């Protein structure tokens, strides 16, 4: 591949590869810090979440250098990201003190389920009491995505090796359209569960910087899922012109991978700043009423 690149192309590839290596080194340094400073109950979850951006950057870099591996690198990033969505929900529960403490804090509270991305326009939906059962359904909403997406991706690879699965063939007769729609539905339900939980705990966890953390998580969702899908659609419809020897779809894949490397590099650096700060533990549930006064002491 490098033999077919001109000087600007080689410089771009070298720069993006360097950004990927720096992102990996930043994550390794951050993981060592988390392992030493963060309690064991939160350690693995925070490391998983921080690994999302460098993993996506690494898979994009491999796909950029080895175009034939794009199918495997995209699917690897997709599987990892499905697990991270579940981990983010569990992180919010752990930051509240765990499931038992969360239920005590919101003993008489209710979840607002009219939130995005599924039901943001359905304001007439009732508010659901916060119980052990509703927490179970929220965790199941993200866990199903972490389980079923790898299964569907494995099925896609099996069909692809047999020549039955073509990524850019979205005709109703092909499996790509139906598998993509099913994965899309699972993704919406998982994001909906995270959105419901975030809407409830965002004020309580404001001292833990949960809003910037959620914003970084949302950026990863939008850039890795929505941005890549839009670019692939443009490439399939020939809106992105071909540039021999690259076809429209191959060029669209290159553009998506190069953008992701730069974006995930920035998110990795920002995540290091957001997650590395030291935060005070929350007051016991009996003292939640004093929360507004405690906000002034937030470091």
UniProtKB/TrEMBL annotation:
Alphabetical UniProt keywords: Membrane, Transmembrane, Transmembrane helix
Membrane topology annotation: Multi-pass membrane protein
Domain of life: Eukaryota
Entry keyword annotation includes Signal: no
Signal peptide: none
Compartments, record wording: Membrane
InterPro entries attached to this UniProt entry: Ostalpha/TMEM184C
GO CC annotations, alphabetized: membrane
Name of the protein in its database record: OSTA protein
Organism of provenance: Platysteira castanea
